[in-house]
């Protein structure tokens, strides 16, 4: 599949991640894989996806290293699609996306919730800093900045955003004397 991201975005982890998992069917296939589905017919039945679309998406997920294609039957040869370590590492992302969706629904309208497997109690997933335990949903407290491999354009972008952030924080609060 040809790349859909601009040349200047290839250094951006968000752009490259979206290239791998930003397609609707891909997220749903991965969700099913996290639920334990491995076989073509399981994915197809669960999702109601066309054979050609499922074949294409599975091929891409294998090429991207998120699923591994393994034979499970020899006569005729049939394959299953098993999450790789890289694929497993996407589970928190899928959980966070589902939690965000549920956060904007009335509890009675949620078709799927995340629960503690032992207690059955609903859990509220949040993204936190592993070092401090602080939630990362505050854009004022946590900001992206250019990393060591950033190119000139990305460095310029984050330098400008940093200047704007500092200038906003230096302004007095409205109504303050």
Protein traits:
single chain; 177 residues; two-stranded antiparallel sheet; mainly alpha; 2 strands
Detailed description of the structure:
This protein is mainly alpha-helical and 177 residues long. Helices cover 44% and strands 8% of the residues. The termini are far apart. The protein contains seven helices and two strands; from the N terminus they run ααααββααα. The radius of gyration is 21 Å and the shape is extended.
Low-confidence stretches: none
Number of strand segments? 2
Order the strands across the largest sheet as they lie in space: 1-2
The structure class reads mainly alpha
Give the number of helices: 7
Portion in helices: 40-55%
Let me know the largest β-sheet: 2 strands, antiparallel
- Please trace the helix and strand order, writing H or E for each element: HHHHEEHHH
* Principal-axes shape call: extended
Oligomeric category: single chain
Distance between the termini: 58 Å
* Estimated radius of gyration: 21 Å
Mean pLDDT: 86
Strand content: 5-15%
Briefly say what this structure is.
The protein has about 180 residues and is mainly alpha-helical.
Q: What layout of secondary structure does this protein have?
A:
Blueprint: H1 13-21, H2 24-34, H3 40-47, H4 51-63, E1 67-74, E2 77-83, H5 85-88, H6 91-103, H7 152-170
Antiparallel strand pairs: 1-2
């Amino acid at each position: 599949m040809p790349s859909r991201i601009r040349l200047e975005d290839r250094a951006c982890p968000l752009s490259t991640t979206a290239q791998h998992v930003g397609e609707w069917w891909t997220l749903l296939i991965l969700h099913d894989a996290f639920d334990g589905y491995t076989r073509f017919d399981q994915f197809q039945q669960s999702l109601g996806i066309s054979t050609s679309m499922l074949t294409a998406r599975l091929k891409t997920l294998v090429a991207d290293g998120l699923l591994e294609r393994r034979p499970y039957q020899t006569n005729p040869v049939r394959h299953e699609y098993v999450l790789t370590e890289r694929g497993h590492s996407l589970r928190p992302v899928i959980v966070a996306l589902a939690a965000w969706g549920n956060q904007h629904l009335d509890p009675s309208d949620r078709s799927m919730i995340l629960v503690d497997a032992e207690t059955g109690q609903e859990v509220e997933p949040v993204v936190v800093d592993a070092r401090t335990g602080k939630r990362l949903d505050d854009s004022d407290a946590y900001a992206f900045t250019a990393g060591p491999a950033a190119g000139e354009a990305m460095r310029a972008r984050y330098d400008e955003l940093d200047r704007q952030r500092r200038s906003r924080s230096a302004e007095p609060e409205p109504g303050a004397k």
